[in-house]
Amino acid sequence: GGSLLYVPPGKWLTGSFNLTSHFTLFLEKDAVLLGSQDINEWPLIDPLPSYGRGRDAPGGRYNSLISGSNLTDVVITGNNGTIDGQGASWWQQFKKGHLKHTRPYLIELMYSDTIQISNLTLVNSPSWNVHPVYSSNILIQGITISAPVNSPNTDGINPDSCTNIKIEDCYIVSGDDCVAVKSGWDEYGISFGRPTKQLIVRRLTCISPTSAVIALGSEMSGGIEDVRAEDIVAINSESGVRIKTAPGRGGFVKDVYVKGMTLHTMKWVFWMTGNYGSHPDSHYDPNALPTIQNINYRDIVAEDVKMAARLEGISGDPFTEICISNVTISMAAKPKKIQWACTDISGISSGVTPKPCDLLADQGPEYARECQFPTDTLPIDEVQVQACSYKKQYL
């Protein structure tokens, strides 16, 4: 009973537009949607309630190229068609400080359920590429995302206050984090109180020289829990997995499980930051301390690495229950003198080279064990991508 919009081969210029429920957007091979460079084609909308303001500037934000709210049963797919945000002018204006409002994203769906985004190429987003927010039952599969590695804030996929998400078989080249998991910013995220949980990331390939392969935060004030990432490949990226938070964030990051990473040419393999200091305004509560616990990494091979880890918790609010096992890190030709920098954390390690810091007590061969990785199945794992096709019909 739904409807389909078919985009044939060719270049098609469009401003921001909204989707409807029970709807499929299908981009044929060699079809290219081009985001308009006329700023009047991008309506202003309110800031997200869990952020309190725009991410780039106080006040509102430009509507995403493809957007929707309170939808159900939406498919954005194709035969590897392309969505091109033509973001260069946005990047230039942002860098010059000329924008009064927050840049648009390529795709943003809010307060929605049962979403599929698959078999597409996304290029040159003005800012974040894919942003499901306040939504559930989301399947993202077979997406290629590309932006210049010096383009500002061109995150790949940012699940934000969402439940039951699966990201599989994606290739991302980004000027920011390839996958960034979020749930609101300081007092606004705490008040909104909607975590991101039950997230699966599989078979991700990432290139991000200035950011993380997978980032948790820094906007995590509604909480992040039950994140499962496996079979990850990264090349020339800043860090493998990064947790970003700060006093004032509140919230939590807990029950994170990562296994099977292969990393080439990295600054850090592991990075946790407890002093990521950006705040939406001066009204945040500095006593709202985040909880970071039960973080598990295992079965990781990394080469050409400058420094194994920077694990920096918060004084009086340590990051706890960190587990790292079966990890082999080969250092770069000119590595940092100190390979593990650890403060205000606690946990254990087993079978890790080079030897971790003393705060990650090595269990020794007689107590060697693997860090946890869940064996149960999340509901989204039962959902398979819908194969969509279009056949021309002649009268």
From TrEMBL:
An individual GO BP term: carbohydrate metabolic process
Presence of the UniProt keyword Lyase in the record: no
Residues spanning the signal sequence: none
GO molecular function, one term: polygalacturonase activity
Keywords, ordered alphabetically: Glycosidase, Hydrolase
Domain of life: Eukaryota
InterPro entries per record: GH28_Enzymes, Glyco_hydro_28, PbH1, Pectin_lyas_fold, Pectin_lyase_fold/virulence
Coiled coil (UniProt feature): none
SUPFAM superfamilies: Pectin lyase-like
PANTHER family xrefs: PECTIN LYASE-LIKE SUPERFAMILY PROTEIN (PTHR31339:SF50), PECTIN LYASE-RELATED (PTHR31339)
Record-stated family: Belongs to the glycosyl hydrolase 28 family.
Protein name: Endo-polygalacturonase
Lineage summary: Eukaryota, Viridiplantae, Streptophyta, Embryophyta, Tracheophyta
